[in-house]
Amino acid sequence: MPSSQAPHPTLLIPGPIEFDDAVLQSMSHHAESHVGPAFVKVFGESLTLVRKLFQSTSPTAQPFIIAGSGTLGWDIVASNLAEKGDEALVLHTGYFGDSFAACLETYGVHVTQLKAPIGERPSLGEIEQALKEKSYKVITITHVDTSTGVLNDVKSIAALVRRISPETLVVVDGVCSVGCEEIAFDEWDLDVVLTASQKAIGCPPGLSIVMCSGRAIDRYNSRSTPPASFYASIGNWLPIMQNYESLKPSYFATPATQLVHALHTTLSQITARPMAERFAAHTQASDRVKAAVAELGLSQLASKPESQAHGMTAIYLPSGLAPPDVLPGLMKRGVIFAAGLHKEIATKYIRFGHMGVSVTDTGRNDIDNAIAALKEALAEAKQAKGL
Amino acid sequence: MPSSQAPHPTLLIPGPIEFDDAVLQSMSHHAESHVGPAFVKVFGESLTLVRKLFQSTSPTAQPFIIAGSGTLGWDIVASNLAEKGDEALVLHTGYFGDSFAACLETYGVHVTQLKAPIGERPSLGEIEQALKEKSYKVITITHVDTSTGVLNDVKSIAALVRRISPETLVVVDGVCSVGCEEIAFDEWDLDVVLTASQKAIGCPPGLSIVMCSGRAIDRYNSRSTPPASFYASIGNWLPIMQNYESLKPSYFATPATQLVHALHTTLSQITARPMAERFAAHTQASDRVKAAVAELGLSQLASKPESQAHGMTAIYLPSGLAPPDVLPGLMKRGVIFAAGLHKEIATKYIRFGHMGVSVTDTGRNDIDNAIAALKEALAEAKQAKGL
């Protein structure tokens, strides 16, 4: 454990995650004007670092960093990139598909959900068929649904959309994927990836981070009605982001200065190494977790290897055990996992987040410790229940 | 300067403001689950502390703490407490009246602005007349407009509204007033006070804080159309806030955990003393600043004493001087003021924020140092310009 943090159980839920010491300390920066040159530089550089995070060099792509939760990213999409009466196709792989759909519907967008059974994902064939049935303004893909740990094949879906319905904007909810799952924004020809600061990016929660393609910005600019939100309006934020990145102060709403410092630190750390290395480290850690889960005779919600996330694992508990039987035993061993979130089966599974410093700082031994704790806590719980 | 912060110029803009050491350090708390008992307690207590901040004991009043900028509070009002086609009366005392009006209009609300000349405020007579001309669903009052330093008499306006148009919701933009200007939420019978974390509350920016009356919640519940925002929806947040305050975990979007820790610390400090003492301290500091401004032969944007804010002072520069002539001289002396913000006269004035620890921690001498620096910087600037 880093020396400046008090001893504490290791947070291995699928976000928020453990903080690197330097990231945490960045927030203790003294007060600065949000329009003063020092902070303008930090904010401007953070925007450029977001481009690097997404491996994007496209001058028409536009990053946004806005005070808010990841959820705010849905409003940014729904209130700017679709209009009342437009059609949206939502690929549903868990809780967050329903929520994104609810957000789109709030703004009058008609939603068709393509739902996979729990633990599965819509196939490319099903998606192709759906795309042929209606003209969709946007398709939304939860890259990793935090409620199920199901990973979507964003690259293939984006290629399919470009082939079948080239005008449809490809929107990726990357809250549980950015920083741990491969994303090549330009190369995959994505239109929006929205995320939050507190998962694999390793920053405290409180920032909504959105990357838009030139095509997405064009869609915004060609709206026939004004944007349907004020705080989430691309029009209100676009000049601000462009100005800050050009190191010019600008004001629409006060940025979360201390969180931006933390973001700057963590993105500097992340992008100092090739992103491919970071993705590989998460894949390796995930493979170890998945192997241990199999060894324990347990199964994952995500039923097929190709649809299993690399930053988290959703694990079915043995029959007869519920999260409250196991989580306290983990806590006793200094490890925090999350309970289930998918409402239909919430009492049947637990979630293990393996992202950020717990993966990349191997000296912490977080993953091995957690696997050992899981083994012991399960054995203890089974014994207590006479299983 | 507190020992744990690096030496730095004193931030005396009208927000963000200087941080108390303990508040800043609170953000270095190790990572916690947003639904774990430790954080649930901190968040729940913070909500209760918001009630104390507003001197409210009404069980039907409801505080909200949401990741976002103060601006988000406008969307919360506009998308929940008014419906498309409703009428709103906006009292305009500067930049923020126009912005709140723009936000309301985004959601289809018809806005009538009652504009006072720069530095003045609409009179009670004018407000009474406006209220009699139309049936308004909401009236919005910028308690202190950060662009002009003009203070509105919220207590008298609220009483007037109750007498003339009792169904009109009284909405106060308290971004630049909560924590330094007197507000008695229940006693004044207010419906909404929205604010942000980074001004007189003394927390870093990134939290939108909104206090709603039972009448406001009833208005939300009796909408004939669904709320017009997802992230800003009272319906989405209300059960979350109620659960956290009852110390039950709940999830809609991940809260900004580290900022909530900072908020808890600063609200604990603030509410440990009677609020009246805090308001008096800000009035005394403000009186000293205003006396010094007068002594320098300068005038304020806020032309009448009763309409002058107590947490900031907007000061007209001597003819021939612009902010870039004076601000660097202040910076050289370790003091940061803000330039003008009101677009019509931005080059003619500067803004001095006197809130929070710079006022209450008198051992810092921030106010006296700033007054001395202002005197010297002005003299220097005049000499340089041959004035």
TrEMBL record, chains A, B:
<comment type="similarity">
    <text>Belongs to the class-V pyridoxal-phosphate-dependent aminotransferase family.</text>
</comment>
<feature type="domain" description="Aminotransferase class V">
    <location>
        <begin position="28"/>
        <end position="342"/>
    </location>
</feature>
<dbReference type="GO" id="GO:0008453">
    <property type="term" value="F:alanine-glyoxylate transaminase activity"/>
</dbReference>
<dbReference type="InterPro" id="IPR024169">
    <property type="entry name" value="SP_NH2Trfase/AEP_transaminase"/>
</dbReference>
<keyword id="KW-0808">Transferase</keyword>
<dbReference type="InterPro" id="IPR015422">
    <property type="entry name" value="PyrdxlP-dep_Trfase_small"/>
</dbReference>
<feature type="modified residue" description="N6-(pyridoxal phosphate)lysine">
    <location>
        <position position="199"/>
    </location>
</feature>
<keyword id="KW-0032">Aminotransferase</keyword>
<feature type="binding site">
    <location>
        <position position="351"/>
    </location>
    <ligand>
        <name>substrate</name>
    </ligand>
</feature>
<dbReference type="GO" id="GO:0019265">
    <property type="term" value="P:glycine biosynthetic process, by transamination of glyoxylate"/>
</dbReference>
<protein>
    <recommendedName>
        <fullName>alanine--glyoxylate transaminase</fullName>
        <ecNumber>2.6.1.44</ecNumber>
    </recommendedName>
</protein>
<dbReference type="Pfam" id="PF00266">
    <property type="entry name" value="Aminotran_5"/>
</dbReference>
<dbReference type="InterPro" id="IPR015424">
    <property type="entry name" value="PyrdxlP-dep_Trfase"/>
</dbReference>
<dbReference type="InterPro" id="IPR000192">
    <property type="entry name" value="Aminotrans_V_dom"/>
</dbReference>
<keyword id="KW-0663">Pyridoxal phosphate</keyword>
<dbReference type="InterPro" id="IPR015421">
    <property type="entry name" value="PyrdxlP-dep_Trfase_major"/>
</dbReference>
<dbReference type="InterPro" id="IPR020578">
    <property type="entry name" value="Aminotrans_V_PyrdxlP_BS"/>
</dbReference>
<dbReference type="GO" id="GO:0004760">
    <property type="term" value="F:L-serine-pyruvate transaminase activity"/>
</dbReference>
<dbReference type="GO" id="GO:0005777">
    <property type="term" value="C:peroxisome"/>
</dbReference>
